[in-house]
């Protein structure tokens, strides 16, 4: 009580003294609280042009029903799995893909901002294919992650500034189907290697508010992640990744949020499935969509929340496949939103 009284008396003395001497400041600095900024980061699944759809002269009609949804995200990534290099190699489907470059125009048309190029088909056509890939991607002025043109390119941080929210992007693949480039071009494809991933995330973490990682991993055509995916997800969590978007299984897999003993949270979408591909032998691969999170920044405080999956499906109309929001065509699709929720789990909003 004595201490409280002393402090009160001292403050009162100061106030009285200032009043008597009339030396209050003539201008008062008002400290304004910085407003919160929220942005949505999203990724769509595999854009893998099997020969049936690769021959379309215009892809816009196939993507049109999804345009408003995709354009609504503040930043959108696509996994461009089949290299758009048909101007040099012709249109080729499975197992070594070569797709028309005008798929890039359609992706930009519907709102895609960045391409992930780290996948098992990146070097289907060797060094000439890689060279053509980058020529076409650069001609379209498309930012990219996961494959690079030089060591300098590989170590240039991919940082996106969205209304003051800084997001760092990384991409990796488990392999390239047994095709490899010369040893002196190891920068060309980012392979999944523990030490490299940890180093990359740690280097990027100090420069950004959020680190997002595209991981091309896991078994194909199964709706549950495997032990290696879980191990890598834990490694990514410990390294400091905030968001993980998974691809390669061509089918949906669960979402989870990991939290380590330091409080680091990582939102993990183990697989977001196909977006534009025709694996007719596995009908569930016709269900895909866009995985997203909301990033809120206020001052130095940054939170990642609201994991959401907007489901899509491919429907044959006439002689063309068209991508629709699954919610609009459930009665015509191979699966419905209930199935999507069951696969992804209860902790993600499905729409």
From TrEMBL:
InterPro entries: Capsule_synth_CapA, CW_Biosynth-Accessory, Metallo-depent_PP-like. SUPFAM superfamilies: Metallo-dependent phosphatases (SSF56300). Gene3D superfamilies: 3.60.21.10. Residues 40-279 form the Capsule synthesis protein CapA domain. Belongs to the CapA family. This is Capsule synthesis protein CapA domain-containing protein. It comes from Caryophanon tenue.
């Amino acid at each position: 009580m004595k201490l409280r009284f002393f402090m009160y008396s001292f403050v009162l003395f100061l106030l009285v003294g200032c009043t008597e001497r009339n030396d209050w400041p003539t201008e008062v600095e008002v400290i304004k609280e910085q407003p919160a900024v929220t942005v949505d980061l999203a990724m769509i699944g595999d854009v893998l042009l099997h020969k049936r759809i690769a021959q379309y002269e215009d892809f816009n009609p196939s993507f049109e029903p999804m345009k408003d949804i995709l354009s609504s995200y503040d930043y959108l990534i696509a996994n461009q799995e089949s290299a758009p290099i048909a101007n040099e190699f012709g249109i080729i489907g499975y197992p070594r893909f070569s797709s028309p470059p005008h798929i890039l125009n359609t992706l930009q048309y519907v709102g895609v901002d960045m391409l992930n190029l780290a996948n098992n088909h990146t070097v289907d056509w060797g060094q000439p294919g890689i060279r053509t890939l980058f020529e076409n991607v650069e001609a379209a002025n498309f930012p990219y992650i996961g494959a690079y043109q030089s060591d300098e390119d590989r170590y240039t941080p991919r940082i996106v500034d969205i209304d003051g929210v800084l997001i760092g992007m990384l991409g990796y693949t488990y392999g390239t189907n047994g095709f490899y480039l010369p040893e002196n071009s190891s920068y060309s494809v980012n392979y999944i290697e523990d030490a490299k991933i940890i180093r990359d995330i740690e280097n990027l973490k100090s420069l950004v508010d959020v680190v997002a990682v595209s991981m091309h991993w896991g078994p194909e055509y199964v709706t549950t992640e495997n032990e290696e995916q879980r191990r890598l997800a834990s490694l990514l969590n410990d390294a400091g990744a905030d968001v993980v978007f998974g691809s390669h299984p061509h089918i949906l897999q669960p979402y989870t949020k990991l939290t380590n003993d330091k409080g680091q949270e990582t939102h993990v979408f183990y697989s977001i499935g196909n977006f534009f591909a025709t694996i007719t032998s596995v009908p569930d691969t016709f269900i895909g969509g866009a995985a997203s999170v909301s990033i809120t920044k206020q001052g130095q405080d940054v939170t990642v929340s609201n994991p959401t999956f907007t489901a899509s499906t491919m429907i044959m109309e006439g002689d063309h496949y068209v991508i629709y929001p699954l919610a609009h065509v459930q009665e015509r699709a191979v699966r419905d939103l209930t199935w999507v929720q069951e696969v992804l789990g209860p902790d993600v909003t499905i729409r």
